[in-house]
Amino acid sequence: MLLVKDMSYNAVMGRKNEIMKKAIGVDYDVFSYGKLGFDYEKMMKKVGYSIEEVEKIQREGKVGNTPLYELKNINALVKKYASKGKGARIFLKDEAMNASGSFKARRAAVSVYHAKKHGYKGVIAATSGNYGAAVAAQALQRGLKCIIVQEVYDSRKVGQPEILEKTRKCEAYGAEVIRLSVGPELFYTLLCLLEETGYFNASLYTPFAIAGIETLGYEIANQMKEIEGRYPDAVIATNAGGGNLVGTARGLIKAGAKDTKIIGASVDLSGLHMASDIDFNKKSFTTGHTGFAIPFATWPDRTDVPRNAARVLRYIDRYAKVTQGEVFYVTEALAQLEGLERGPAGNTSLSAAIAIAREMDEDQIVVVQETEYTGAGKHPNPQLTFARENGIVVKRGKPVDSKPGESIMIPETFEQLSVTDIDVEELKFNLIRNAIEKSGLNSIGDEDFSFLVEDTNATEEFVEKALKKLNVVYQ
After folding, report:
1. Residue 151, phi then psi, degrees to nearest 5
2. What is the rounded CA–CA span in Å between residue 445 and residue 2?
3. Between the CA of residue 469 and those of 433, 438, 442, 461, 466, what are the distances in Å?
């Protein structure tokens, strides 16, 4: 008698760990201890590839060794609008030069190589961002099949120009693209496809993916050492799911740049719910925004893998948000002042860097660690036109007057570019609260306490106070 597998939502979700173990080849259970903890560094070592090996893998896929430019014309304006003695120099790592046009190619190169090495016939990734194109481009070169699962539309079947452009890019590299409306079926569909095909899950959040981005930080440290004879004072990373910032920070540390400050930057989309059908097309950025970044920072394990390797709070020193209008303004400035036309989402960190450089001393150096390719749907004009079609007011004015989902204020002057700091200590408290609430614990022991200290990069006193506030006994 032929047994028919139960493909109901609850049944597939119930097989999640079994499916993921086959689709990634990693048994996450072996890294777990206590009631909360898991050995993060041991998991990262599971990757099994050294920096040198990752560099070789990436060279084979036309990835890495991207140029690092000083933005001299933008720096002149930073200096002009800074106080006396202030105005750090900004350098830009041009990641658009990677095959497929973004830093995501670094993580895709390692994941696809690993899949090929271990005999998988194809790869699958669930993403609406540049990562889909990156996986498709790498799979194409390695001779593997590729399926990309995207959230593209709202319930009206209307999709943003930026996402539609990314669909086109995936298909250009030969991927099969599964287009979904926003909602809970994304993860269910991914699990069904993994189980049906037996393909590798090229997740954004595996240790392989993060190891791929480590070369980005490693290159920045070594290039700055070669150009200026020293490491940068700060590196700014656009932050969404966390992998960009975490991989870069780990690479800097591996190169020896242990004193370089790690600053995250996101576009402020506060008040918009990312899983909401109504809000889905009211955001004008599909990546690098707070709608992903804050939930993932405060509960990293909400991903498609049992334990997320992108754990932002372990590395971040400062976190700033900028507005959509500021990023559109800086996108134009980069093109018109530096001759570099790059996609708007990747310019989030540059927008923050301009404001932060004005705070820093003039002899300091800050590196913006990525750009992304641009294409028809990613230019500011189609995105702003789409925003107007969805009822968003677009006009010149003070960025601080912007309201996500209602208005986009394009700065009138360079001087109006600014940042708003996000309270990192509050994020750390929220991570502890989420860990406690999701586990249902009312007391913890030494092992779990130490894990929370590591996972928040906080002091023992901070974690003790947080637990006390949450009425959790530490014994």
Report:
1. -85, 110
2. 48
3. 9, 16, 12, 12, 5
**What is the b/e burial string over 206-215, where b = at least 16 CB atoms within 10 angstroms of the residue's CB?**
bbbbbbbbbb
Retrieve residue 389's tokens: 């079609």
Contact 51, 254 (CB under 8 A): yes
Torsions phi, psi for 467 (to 5 deg): -65, -40
Sequential DSSP letters for 46-76: TT---HHHHHHHHHHTT-----EEE-HHHHH
Q: Say how many CA atoms lie within 13 Å of 97 toward its Cβ.
A: 13
Q: Which residues contact 52 (CB under 8 A, 6 or more apart)?
A: none
- Tokens encoding 42: 């041991």
Of residues 444 and 5, the one with the higher pLDDT is: 444
CB atoms within 10 A of CB 301: 15
Residue 9 tokens read as: 């939502």
DSSP of 333-379, one letter per residue?
Answer: HHHHHHS----SGGGHHHHHHHHHHHHSBTT-EEEE-------GGGS
Burial call 178-190: b when 16+ CB within 10 Å, e when fewer: bbbbbeeebbbbb
> In the 8-state DSSP scheme, what is residue 206?
S
Backbone angles phi, psi at 365, to 5 degrees: -130, 135
- Residue 452 CA to residue 40 CA, distance in Å, equals 12
Task: Kindly state the tokens that stand for 445.
Answer: 């022991």
Give the pLDDT confidence of 114-170 residue by residue, as tens digits: 999 999 999 999 988 899 999 999 999 999 999 999 999 999 999 888 889 999 999
pLDDT, averaged across the chain: 94
Among the listed residues 377, 375, 417, 309, the one whose alpha carbon sits nearest the alpha carbon of residue 161? 377
Confidence band, pLDDT 50/70/90 cuts, at residue 368 = very high
Q: Are strands 200-201 and 318-322 parallel, antiparallel or unpaired?
A: unpaired
Tokens of 33: 């201890």
Q: Please state, as a whole number, how many other Cβ atoms lie within 10 Å of the Cβ of residue 78.
A: 25
CA triplet 127, 329, 310: central angle to 5 degrees?
30
- Which residues have C-beta within 8 Å of that of residue 468, sequence separation ≥ 6? none
DSSP state letter for 423: -
Helix, strand, coil tally for the chain in percent (to 5) = 50, 15, 35
With 0.90 as the threshold, say if the pTM is over it: yes
Amino acid of residue 145: K
- Rounded Cα–Cα distance for residues 331 and 353 (Å): 13
pLDDT, average across residues 169-192: 93
Extract the tokens encoding 245: 């910032």
Least confident of 59-63, 157-161, 218-222: 157-161
Cα 125 off chain centre by: 15
